[in-house]
Every structure is written in structure tokens, then in C-alpha cells.
Structure of Helix-turn-helix domain-containing protein:
Amino acid sequence: MRFIEEVVVEEFLPTFRTVLAGELRDRELTQSEVAELLGISQSAVSKYAHGEVETNAEIERDDRFLEFVEGLAEGLTTGEMSRVQALVETEVFIRRLERGDLLARLHEAAYPPIADHDGPLDIHDPEGEFRMTERVRSSVRRGVRTLENTSGFAALVPAVGSNLVEALPDATTIDDVAAVPGRILDVKGRATVPGDPEFGVSEHVASLLLAARRAGSDARAALNVRYDDGIIQSLEAAGYETVEFDAEADLEDAIAGAIEATPDADVLYQTGGFGVEPVCYVLGSDAAAVVEAIREIRR
């Protein structure tokens, strides 16, 4: 694991200080004056000036970087910019380069697993897409692990298999929903999970969750299990709101009708149809909430 801050410290700062020291020296400042402005020792300035510090060529070639450093040097030399202002401007510039820009690309190169993320990358944004997708993926991963360790869960897996899904807050398509690739299956009495959660790999359960959300449900997660009267009774006894929908009707219309009839529904179920297996769908605020409902059935 390598943090973007390491890229800043090891790649950006040596390059930044080298180029800035050179710009200041070009403006006929002494090593002592450069050292005072940058808050470093004269020996460090000497190393920068003589090319004894390793720099990053990609950063050095970036026109925005060069323009920014030149502006800092000019402002510091003329006194139009204080050292505090220069520090603040540099911090802002670094944050900008971290948001899907030059430093983000260097971070990706230094830590290849980040390349698996398809959307814009903003490590420091607490509500950013990157952080949110990883939170959702992690939530599904924890939920699946809990299901694997829940005694008797395999017996609840329908013949078509189960899937645990969780949507991003503003999800509109199945690509915004994380799920188990393939399906969770009952293999000789054990719930078998084929792989780590991914986005866009569940069609049916994700589509049902999205339909429920479009109909007014605030659920962000769902899990399908087999249907029987005992399961519904157990969930109702635990305080969950249940509602039936028509398995043979259009999914969007059927779910909209069910949510309209029971706006606070936690459980949607259908009792089967021609070629359609009866299935129960548990909804919740996140994967953990859905899994907790399933654990209620097994108590």
C-alpha cells in the first residue's frame, strides 16, 4: 500500500524545491536568501542547485507546474507574495494535482490497484466517488463474509442463487450497484461466493433494488433468498414490513405497485409463476442491515 502523500513527499517536493530554488537563484538571490525563503538549510539549497537531488521528469515537464513555480518565484522575489501565501498557494496546487490529475496518475503508477477504479479519482474528497465506491464495495464484502459465517444461510439460497447488492447514493443504473460477480450458490450445504464484489455485475437483484428506489424506497441494499411462508412470518415477527408483488408482471410496474401499497416495505416477495421460482427480497439501508434481517430468520 502506498499513499498519495508519499508521492508528494518523494516525487513532487524534491522537484518543486529544485525548480523553485533554481528560479530564485536566476533572479540573483543568494543561497542564504533562498534558504530563508524556503525554510531550508543553505546546504540543501546547494544540493538543489547542483542537481544532487533526484527529481521527477514528468512533473518538470508539466507546463502548469513550471508556470506556477515561476509565479511563486516572482512573487517571493518582489515581495508581492509572503512566504505564508506561497505555502497556501502550493498546498492548493498540490490538492488540485491530486484530484484526477498529475499526482493522481503518479499515484496510480506507484500503486497499481488504484487503476481498477474507472471513475474520477479524488483521494481527499470525503464525499468523492472514489471513496464512496470503495466504501460500498467494502460494505458488500463485509456483508458477504457475515453471510458465509451465518449458520444455515446456505439453506436460504434459492435455486437461481442469491446476490447481495448495495447501491451508490445517487445510483441510476446497475453500473452504480456493487454485488457479487455471478451469484452466491448453495454447494453441498455451504454458501459459495465466486469472487470479490464489483460494480455492474448484478442484473436482476440490482434492477429490483433500483426499481424500488425509483418507486420511493430509500433502501440502498438488497438480498434475495428463497420464499416460503415461514420466512415471511419470521421477518414479520421481527418487525419487518412485507409486501407481495406479481412475479409475472413487468418488474418496474410490479415493484412500483408494491411500494405504493406499502411505502415502508423492508421485504418484497413473489410466490412464483410460470417458470418463475418464488423468491423473497430483503431491502435495507446498507449490506449490514440486510444481512441482519437474514440473521433474524436463522435465530
Summary: The mean pLDDT is 90.
